[in-house]
Amino acid sequence: MKSYTKLLFFILLVLCSFPSKTSAQEAKISASIDTTRMLIGDQINLVYELEQPKGLDFGFPIFKDTLLKNLEVLRVSPIDSQLLENNLVKLTQRVLVTSFDTGFYIIPSQYFVNLANQDSLKSEAFPLEVLTLELDTSKGITDIKLPYDIPLTFMEILPYIIVGMLLIGIIIL
Q1: How far apart are alpha carbons 91 and 60 in whole angstroms?
Q2: How far is the C-alpha of 49 from the C-alpha of 112, rounded, in Å?
């Protein structure tokens, strides 16, 4: 019986001596997109959220004026931070994009680099389909909207009335 106790004690000692990773100490990246289909010229948001322990320092990617050849970056929000439970920090950044060319695009994965040890996390890639409006070519070229007839106001006519009265007064004199 003593040998089993010693063996069990030895096995527990060996298992406890190995370092273990806890899920609370790992950084996680999540990415989302408003929609995977949009009309040409519309705008959609890409949202990147990084959940990390308070001591880690991951750098967000730097977004230029385009993500792809025909996918333009309009605005990149400042990084918003939120303190969570278990000494975790949630960092969020929104990227507003648009496209003026139809087609099917794959928004590439983005890398978030740990500034201390150059380790990186990779976000997921997203498909995006840019659609165009259906045109009725049988009608030919037409205006987008017809011009409005705006009625004249009294203030617009008043200078002409004053000039007319002055001319009549001069003619009578």
Answers
A1: 9
A2: 10
Q: Residues 132-159: pLDDT tens digits?
A: 887 777 777 776 777 778 888 889 999 9
pLDDT > 70 fraction of the chain, expressed in percent and rounded: 84
The tokens describing 8, both together, are 């069990």
Supply the pTM of this predicted model.
Answer: 0.62
